[in-house]
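Limitations
The structure tokens in this dataset are predictions for the assembled complex, not deposited experimental models. Users should treat interface geometry with appropriate caution, especially where small molecules or nucleic acid strands are included. An illustrative entry is reproduced here so readers can see what is and is not provided.
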Amino acid sequence: MDTLETRVQIVAIVASALLFFFVMELLRRRRLGEPYAILWLTASVVLLVLAVWDDLLDSLADLVGIETPANALFAVAFGFTLILLLTFSSVISRLSRENRILAQEIARLNREAQAASDRGAGAGREPTAPEGRPADEARQPTA
Amino acid sequence: MAARRKVAIVPALNEAGSIARVVEEIRREVPGYDVVVIDDGSTDETAWRAAEAGAIVLEHPFNLGIGGAVQSGYRYAFMHGYEVAVQVDGDGQHDPGQIAKLEQALRSSDADLVWGSRFLEHPGYEVPRSRRSGITIFARLLSLITREHVSDPTSGFRLTNRRGIELFARDYPHDFPEVEAILMVHAHDMSMREVPVSMRERAAGRSSIGGHNAGYYMVRVLLAVFVGLFRRRPVPPAEDDWLAASPSEALEGAPR
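Predicted assembly:
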């Protein structure tokens, strides 16, 4: 069983530590919401722990039958990538659904605001499209 | 807009069973308050029952979470020039009879935010042990950071003045907002005060804390508290700021 090569270990430690502090900084500047920050922080901490304690990485590699520990580290990082991507897909789906509902609500509110201003128009307001006819009684509020 | 100065903000999610009683009780106990119910995407008759009971109802087209619901209320309060706002849960847990007590505490001190604590005079209030220990941790932490005595940081029964309304309209935490809101108030050099109240068992509905989400709640809020310590002033960046984007509304209620 190999152990993690020292250079790989250093790169992995530096990279995951940088990721950790970068995520914290984004959080501090309010560029990242907590739920996503927690995912990213978990990923960076797990990678950091595995890179620092390479015994742990070795036994993990051994456990799942990966020959080189570096590949095990890579597999863990890939796992987190998949989780994050799946999360984003799910969030994007929710956002598009909510976005559609917002557009529909705005359309409805526009229509109702228009109807309300038409109704109250009579006196001095600017006439809108079908305005100007004396047939005020013809324009009934919908719904 | 000189007439009405005080508003009760009532966030409600699927509270058709209790909302009418809450609204009626607020109107009876403190007739000087307008009641604004924020229906946060309920699938039941919450909005209709609240309107029937005489509330102004803001209906979210989908669920935004408790923080989003409460902030809707503060934005409404800000835009309409209210001077005092009180938050009352839609589930009947908070006793409207004690709003006057909160208001009295705000007026008699220099506090900008007061909230009702279940634990000051009524240690008998029963909350599950797991929740209680979480509340204790946050209480200690907040007491340490703010140097005020905080015993019930998750209480949503809170009353604030125009400064607080403006702050919360501008920025309010999202998912588990109570603890973070206290920190925001502290970071803005506003003063705060706890007031002993008694609370009832929730009439219906469910708690936003507790159960299998408790661990996540703790981590999430602890992270927010920790990161908040490193922010100079926890307000959002200018380009996200709706108040800066709409100066006419911002001016409307401000000068006195």
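Some entries come with short summary sentences. For this one: The CA atoms of residues 106 and 114 of chain B lie 6 Å apart.
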